[in-house]
Amino acid sequence: DAKTTQPTSMDCAEGRAANLPCNHSTISGNEYVYWYRQIHSQGPQYIIHGLKNNETNEMASLIITEDRKSSTLILPHATLRDTAVYYCIVLMKTSYDKVIFGPGTSLSVIP
Amino acid sequence: EPEVTQTPSHQVTQMGQEVILRCVPISNHLYFYWYRQILGQKVEFLVSFYNNEISEKSEIFDDQFSVERPDGSNFTLKIRSTKLEDSAMYFCASKGQVRSDTQYFGPGTRLTVL
């Protein structure tokens, strides 16, 4: 699996958009970008994934650059409950794809 | 919304004892996984299981560990003789009916070995 690089930590004001960047410059054509988050030692929670196109669901939006070497997860209106560690992961969906977690970005939403 | 469930939420055991951690994957899922997270560290892959056999395991998953799907709903992780360093959160995950499906995680079991 390709490696990803994320900032160690970020702050965001409550109610504002949280933009979490991720670099995955060695991603290959058949690898997807996945985002999970982990709230204080709870189980990792799936957020969103994409291949080439931008994606949006009820939790977040995922913006993938045209060259696919980086992406941004957007939480449109961050709340205190969004305080968590966010993991950007690259997965080849045709495999048994064990999820390899890096250190992630620790997002603190501040009142 | 279907969820992966795990029991117990917290297990305390003495060193050298056997423990069994239980998971109920999402119904109709076919791919199953165990991960662990030592306090303050990353989530680490232990083992994947498909079609009643292990498909991949990590270096952590040594002879002390075993997995089983004893019936159509449960997926278990057994640690034969626990060590202090086995203290961690253990997460079960499951994935749907094709390899391209998304993996969903359970809430975890906190194992404390004394």
Summary, kept brief:
Chain A has strands spanning 9-13, 18-23, 31-38, 45-50, 55-56, 61-64, 70-75, 84-92, 105-110. Chain A is mainly beta and 111 residues long. Chain B is mostly beta strands and 114 residues long.
Low-confidence stretches of chain A: none
Output mean pLDDT of chain A: 93
Strand line-up across the major sheet of chain A: 1-9-8-3-4
* pLDDT < 50 runs, ≥5 residues of chain B: none
The overall pLDDT average of chain B reads 94
- What composes the largest sheet of chain B? 7 strands, mixed
Estimate percent helicity of chain A.
Answer: under 10%
From the helix content, strand content and strand pairing of chain B, which structural class follows?
A: mainly beta
Radius of gyration of chain B: 13 Å
Q: How can the largest sheet of chain A be summarized?
A: 5 strands, mixed
Tags for this entry?
heterodimer; A: 111 residues; mainly beta; 5-stranded mixed sheet; 4-stranded antiparallel sheet; 9 strands; 0% helix; B: 114 residues; 7-stranded mixed sheet; 11 strands; globular
Give a topology summary.
The complex is a heterodimer of chains A (111) and B (114).
Chain A (H helix, E strand, L loop, with lengths): L8 E5 L4 E6 L7 E8 L6 E6 L4 E2 L4 E4 L5 E6 L8 E9 L12 E6 L1
Chain B lengths: L4 E3 L2 E4 L5 E6 L6 E7 L5 E8 L2 E5 L7 E4 L6 E5 L8 E8 L7 E3 L3 E5 L1
Parallel strand pairs in B: 2-11
Antiparallel strand pairs in B: 1-3, 3-8, 4-5, 4-9, 5-6, 7-8, 9-10, 9-11
